[in-house]
Amino acid sequence: MKVSTRTRYGLRLMVCLAEYYGNGPVLLKDIAKNQDISEKYLSLIVIPLRAAGLIQSTRGARGGYTLARKPELITVADIVDVLEGEPCLVDCVKNPAQCPRVPICPTRDVWSILGEKIRETLAAISLPSLVAVSLGKGRNTFMENI
Question: How far apart are CA 120 and CA 23, in angstroms?
Fold first, then answer.
């Protein structure tokens, strides 16, 4: 499984919003600058995140983006599912009809179990835990940079 740039950047965007949670909307240009990501690219990433109800936008002079719910209620799995789709290592796990060997395949169960473990791991990581890891790495807080 390889995670796309879109998902990696989307997760970084969500960590910034989690760090700033409760302080009002954040402009994409500020996140883009802080994370060294193109603002145009971020503007494409926010569309599915907003459609999924993970973030909300506010128009106007004091507008920007905020998390749509408390950071502790958003997991990495939520974000990955929206931007990447549910982790699936081989097609036959998600769509058994694609392979006639499914009933006798000695390896399909391995890929299925591994996919479940990946999903469980992603679901166990909340945004506040990523904020804590980020701050523990000595990074300046997002709030200090805007």
Answer: 31
Calculate helix-pair angle for 76-83, 108-123, nearest 10 degrees.
120
pTM, rounded to two decimals: 0.86
Q: Which of 59, 80, 66, 100 is nearest to 2 (CA)?
A: 80
- Among residues 50, 83, 80, the alpha carbon closest in space to that of 68 is found at 50
pLDDT, tens digit, 9 for 90 and up, residues 45-64: 999 999 999 999 999 888 89
Q: Given this structure, which CATH class describes domain 5-86+126-145?
A: mainly alpha
Report how far residue 45's alpha carbon sits from residue 67's, in angstroms, rounded to the nearest whole number: 14
